[in-house]
Amino acid sequence: MLQYRLGYTFSNPLNLRPPAFDSTYNSTLTDLMRFLKYRYRHLLRAEVSIHRGSWTLTSQVRYNSIPLNIDKDYYRFIPGLLNHRIRTRYGDWMVDLRLGWTSNRGRYRFNFIVRNALNRSWMPVPGNIGEQRNFQLQWSVLL
Fold this sequence. Notes:
By secondary structure, this protein is mainly beta. It is built from 3 helices and 6 strands, in the order βαββααβββ.
């Protein structure tokens, strides 16, 4: 059996009270200031699961576009932030994998989970490095 889930969110986080135009900013920065800080415009979540007997293989894909407006002081205090933002200017893709087995009676479930399977370097917010690839074993008891 094949199952899938798909979700997409688009937001237009316009600042209803943008700062007054200042000639010290270039036009690109002024355009970006029209947006609220640290907001993603595009979020995509997709999950595909294949079930065969008591086994399940699941792949989850997440996409976050890059936040358009962040504090300019971050560039001074966080080394490598500018390079990271240039490298991820089209957004971040994250992939998680899960292999699961459910007991015959359905009471126990075991999962082997690989988070950030592509081992991407990502920042949910500037300066907060997202977790690197990790492996998890999960045992669930269903009551």
